[in-house]
Amino acid sequence: MSLLVVGSTAFDTIETPSGTAKDCLGGSATYFALAARMFTAVRLVSVVGQDFPAAHRAMLEQKGIDCQGLEQKPGKTFRWHGRYSADMNARETIDVQLNTFGEFAPKVPPALRDSRFVFLANGSPRTQMAVVQQMAKPEFVVADTMDLWIDRERPALLELLQRVNGLIVNDAEVRMLTGESNLIRAGKAVLALGPSLAIVKKGEHGCFLFSPYFHYALPAYPTERVTDPTGAGDSFAGGFMGHLAGCDSVSLWNMKRAVAYGTVTASITVEGFGVDRLAAADRGTVERRYQELLQFVQS
Amino acid sequence: MSLLVVGSTAFDTIETPSGTAKDCLGGSATYFALAARMFTAVRLVSVVGQDFPAAHRAMLEQKGIDCQGLEQKPGKTFRWHGRYSADMNARETIDVQLNTFGEFAPKVPPALRDSRFVFLANGSPRTQMAVVQQMAKPEFVVADTMDLWIDRERPALLELLQRVNGLIVNDAEVRMLTGESNLIRAGKAVLALGPSLAIVKKGEHGCFLFSPYFHYALPAYPTERVTDPTGAGDSFAGGFMGHLAGCDSVSLWNMKRAVAYGTVTASITVEGFGVDRLAAADRGTVERRYQELLQFVQS
């Protein structure tokens, strides 16, 4: 079924203990779409500047991603420069140039408003809400958020949470949002804010899924070498939402499989810089890792 | 089948964000034995001083723990005083009085030397080795260790690792032992040091099991309120070894179940101060949590 993602497209300069990569194609919507396209047709809504090479758009389209919502505006593309700690569990932002993304007011093209599955990548909750309001009849809307919005835009975020079906956040974010340090309590507390689904990502420690009817824990894929963690969260969301949209079902059984597929697409992303590994992967790669993951966690 | 544990018996004073408990019965062998006795007959080898109340020994014996190896010596019982951080993920030692445990040279009573399953709780690797050498024909020997021995007694520890079947350590310890920061690589690196089983405990993030033939990951039981993490690791080892000894099998299937039982016994321990919850629990409590855990992780 139709899956829409709204988020950033960026050029990232990334420093990790494995090396440095300059001006990689990145951005939340890019990682999400490149992961999700292995499961279903994806529609990308984002913004870039005049410096965005036609070759990048062509690559995304060649991967089957619908780019009619990828606006090109006067000015430059969003740029981010970050540096990871030795154990890659922390990162600092060296430089951010929002450029065209600074005034991103996403317009969902009319032909895409019928999308039934929607992912609101990290962005201001007001912008995320504006997207929800443009959709005709979305069936399953999931949002990401970050510390900045939890801190500065809490009322707008709480309002958004009343309008979405799910929230995907990391451990630090869910603690900040709910004030609960215990992650089980924090995950349940999200459900009290509106969504019927809360996913808490814990990086190398896997993730938790909370719903009113069941809870689920899945360890991470046993990756032996992390090259660059950038985009892991959005790649997770892409695999997760891609699988759900692809089978057009949010049953318990499919939710669990979706979490495993998200875990797999994230594991592919972190093995290379930027989107390289993810863009090169195909459904065969995904299925092999999915089977390996199931063996690793099978009780 | 016969399960022997050699380790400490102590009085602990514990400060956590939940409160303070003075002079609780504790020690690695105590936690281990109280967890393992729910699965099989346990034999305890440890040392206490003249201040050890007869009521404590009676309680252990009443739980079915064979205490003929619990030596009572002139002097005082080992005392430890610790304080946990707000999130309970770190602790500092306020005071240690080794007392009778300082010269602990475990003597396994002749009647217990036929034990087929042996757990060497945290202690000097020379002491652990001395225990191995006293056993008649141990079938499955598992050791714990800590940063102190990895740092100061590495040669003796490496020698011990050639003589044991398994090692149970936490994430920080396995990184220190192997020099690998990635836990999957670290776990595999332990296997190269001798044991055919390495378990890496990650506290609230669950654990990994490594063997030459399979790897396994299990999230922690979804505990909502941690009162006191003291003894969680030894309670894990007790549930793990207790199950294996109880069914007298180290098959893949039983190993996975044993990890789940260890996870369950650890989760019971952390819900109260000291050994209170663990001593009060019975096999029914364990089985209910085991089913809950399976539901939580079932893919």
What does this structure look like?
Two copies of one chain form a homodimer. Chain A has 299 residues and is an alpha/beta fold. The first copy, chain A, has one domain (3-297): Ribokinase (UDP-N-acetylmuramoyl-L-alanine:D-glutamate ligase). Chain A is built from eleven helices and 13 strands. Chain A has helices at 28-36, 54-62, 125-134, 147-152, 154-161, 171-178, 183-191, 232-247, 252-269, 276-280, 283-297, and strands at residues 3-6, 10-16, 19-26, 42-48, 65-72, 78-84, 91-97, 117-120, 140-144, 166-170, 197-201, 207-210, 215-218. In chain A, the strands form two sheets. Chain A has a nine-stranded mixed β-sheet, with helices on both faces. Chain A starts with a strand and ends with a helix. In chain A, 53% of the residues are buried.
Brief sketch in words of this structure:
The structure is a homodimer of 299-residue chains. Chain A is of the alpha/beta class and 299 residues long. Helix content of chain A is 38%, strand content 25%.
